[in-house]
Design a protein that fits this description.
Largest sheet: none
CATH topology of one domain: Serine Threonine Protein Phosphatase 5, Tetratricopeptide repeat
Order of helices and strands: HHHHHHHHHHHHHHHHHH
Oligomer: single chain
Helix content: 55-70%
Radius of gyration: 23 Å
């Protein structure tokens, strides 16, 4: 029986501030501009994307001062990142607020992030949740996911697992992989919903299909253990391998054990040693000693030449991160 990644704290597994920051960075300075011809806003965005921050600042600043919400958001990004101006979180928060006050959802998310982390403003979870809620009510999945975490952890609001599930579900229904993963955790542990392994498996599977390594590890373990899905070693190996190839240490260790036992794959101690060797050395691993012991058990079945081959495979291995679908 291999372990499911369900005993973790979700906020630790999926850091709220880091995840929101990454999600918003994707949309930064790439809003769809409803104009048929180029103008100062489009030229400012193009200058930023080309690395000409001085021109971007010159073009965007007067637009932001004049009340253009997209220019205000873009200028805030420049201050937050220190692009073309000295990094200044207070200025970033000021411009995010001016755009957020106009209902700009991505600025509302970013302003919530600033309050969550205390960047440019005093740390204030109540204010953070206020701005996340405004964006969430506009059906922005990142904000719905953020609200779910804050309700689950009791940050800015009393802990409320049922409310957390509600917000996770709204984001998960928009194919937001982190929310799908967290919703799976809620069903697996029976938090805010009746415990339901089959429902947990479905949400892990949806996130796994989008390339989420932790979800891939979890759905693999559920197939391995027959929890919520029929036991199927070959399918378990398939998902362990996808997670292991992305560098997930638990999946690497579990794949090692599948090779050593010949479960779902032909027994292969060379590959078993390789995967456990990687898991033992993985800086993100929770139990490297356990992986090392599994590696050493595999080594007891190998010749010196085979061990050398396993070590070569481990040296040459590189993680292959999957891109979300």
């Amino acid at each position: 029986m291999r372990a499911l990644t369900a005993d973790m704290q979700v906020a630790t597994a999926k850091p709220l501030a880091d995840r929101i920051a990454a999600a918003v960075a994707v949309v930064a300075l790439v809003f769809v501009v409803p104009a048929a011809k180029a103008g100062p806003l489009e030229d400012g965005v193009a200058a930023y994307k080309s690395g000409d921050y001085a021109t971007a600042l010159r073009l965007l600043s007067p637009l932001a001062e004049g009340g253009n919400a997209q220019a205000q958001f873009d200028l805030a990004i420049m201050y937050e990142r220190g692009r073309g101006v000295p990094q200044d979180y207070a200025q970033a928060a000021k411009w995010y607020r001016r755009a957020a006050d106009q209902g700009a959802a991505q600025s509302q998310i970013k302003l919530g992030y600033m309050f969550f982390y205390g960047r440019g403003v005093p740390q204030d979870y109540v204010e953070a949740i206020k701005w996340y809620r405004q964006a969430a009510q506009q059906d922005v999945a990142e904000a719905q996911y953020a609200l779910g975490i804050m309700y689950e952890n009791g940050q800015g609001v009393p802990p409320d697992f049922a409310e957390a599930v509600s917000w996770y579900r709204r984001a998960a229904d928009q194919r937001y992989a982190d929310a799908q993963f967290n919703l799976g955790i809620m069903y697996y542990n029976g938090r805010g919903v009746p415990q339901d392994y089959a429902e947990a498996a479905q949400w892990f599977l949806r996130a796994a299909e989008q390339g989420d390594a932790k979800a891939q590890q979890n759905i693999a373990a559920m197939y391995d253990n027959g929890q919520g899905v029929p036991e199927n070693d070959a399918t378990a190996v398939y998902w362990y391998r996808r997670a292991a190839n992305q560098g997930d240490p638990r999946a690497q260790n579990d794949l090692c054990q599948m090779y050593a036992a010949g479960e779902g794959v032909p027994r292969d101690y060379v590959l078993a040693y390789m995967w456990c060797n990687l898991a033992a050395a993985n800086p993100e691993g929770e139990n490297p000693d356990f992986a090392a012991r599994n590696r050493d058990r595999a080594a007891s079945n190998l010749t010196p030449a085979q061990i050398e081959e396993s070590q070569r495979l481990a040296r040459e291995w590189k993680p292959k991160k999957e891109q979300p679908e």
